[in-house]
Amino acid sequence: MLVLFLAPGAAGLHIVFGSHNIPHPAKAATGGEDAFFFDDAIGTFGIADGVGGSAKGGKVDPGEFSREVLQRCHMASHHLATSKSGGIDDALEMASDAPIALGGSTTMLLGQLEDGTNKLRLLNLGDSGAMVLRPSMREFGGPGGPKVLFPRCVLRSQYQEHGFNWPFAARASNFGSISGDFDKVTTDIKEGDVLI
Predict the structure, then answer these.
(1) How many Å separate Cα 116 from the centre of its chain?
(2) Could you report the per-residue pLDDT of 11-23, keeping only the tens digit for each?
(3) Could you tell me if 108 and 47 are in contact, meaning their C-beta atoms sit under 8 angstroms apart?
(4) What is the pLDDT of residue 2?
(5) In 63-118, which ranges are E strands?
(6) Is it the case that residue 101 has pLDDT exceeding 80?
(7) Which residues does residue 68 pair with via DSSP β-bridges, in sequence order?
(8) What is the pLDDT of residues 67-84, one digit of tens each?
(9) What sections of 83-181 are H helices per DSSP?
(10) Cβ pair 155, 131 in contact under 8 A
């Protein structure tokens, strides 16, 4: 799980990143099947949830595939942000230009707080997902009841599945054309919002 708090920065909103990855004990020796990155300097992040079913009897490491995909996305987003020549969509296109020789597959979520704006751009593939929570005052127990600061869901992505336990996923055979399969969502965010 990656939790992002949105706070005021020098030139607008800034994302405060925090995350933790605990692999399943049976997968700890390889680092697990999942991967993530976040880059405070450019407000981008990515999460890849390796698909365990692509392990093919232990001959393929979905975690290695997940890490390779996100390393490419991070390098591309950093290059584009430094040259001010594109956003997270362009980074995904750039990352998928070269073929991947690794086996495995992964679902993914990529995001970017657009520089100098309050726009959060999300790209989602498969059964990964995101939710934006906004602190709001709520009354409990009926009219006149106690008012409590409580999170309200203002955005929730939708799963992409072919069928039960069969999510859309990036794999070596479709990686070059995968960007068209991502759901693309842009939302306005506010100080204090939490992205999970």
Answers:
(1) 20
(2) 567 777 777 788 8
(3) yes
(4) 47
(5) 105-113
(6) yes
(7) none
(8) 999 999 999 999 998 888
(9) 88-95
(10) yes
Question: What are residue 171's DSSP bridge partners?
Answer: 105
Instruction: Give residue for tokens 């707080």.
Output: 113
Facing residues of 36 across strands?
A: 47
| Phi-psi map region of 113: left, alpha, beta (phi>0 left; psi -120 to 50 alpha) | beta
Per DSSP bridges, beta strands 194-195 and 44-50 are unpaired
Look at the block and give the residue holding tokens 């005021």.
Answer: 8
CA–CA separation, 183 and 181 (whole Å) = 7
Q: For residue 117, what are its two tokens?
A: 């704006």
Q: How far apart are CA 164 and CA 148, in angstroms?
A: 38
Residue of 83, 74, 67 lying closest to 34 (CA atoms): 67
Dihedral angle sign, alpha carbons of residues 60, 62, 64, 68: positive
- Residues 133-168 have pLDDT tens digits of 998 888 888 888 888 888 899 999 998 999 888 899
Q: What is the pLDDT of residue 157?
A: 92
Q: Place 191 in a pLDDT band, splitting at 50, 70 and 90.
A: confident
Which is nearest to 65 in space by CA: 31, 111, 18, 15?
31
The Cβ of residue 192 has, within 10 Å, a number of other Cβ atoms equal to 16
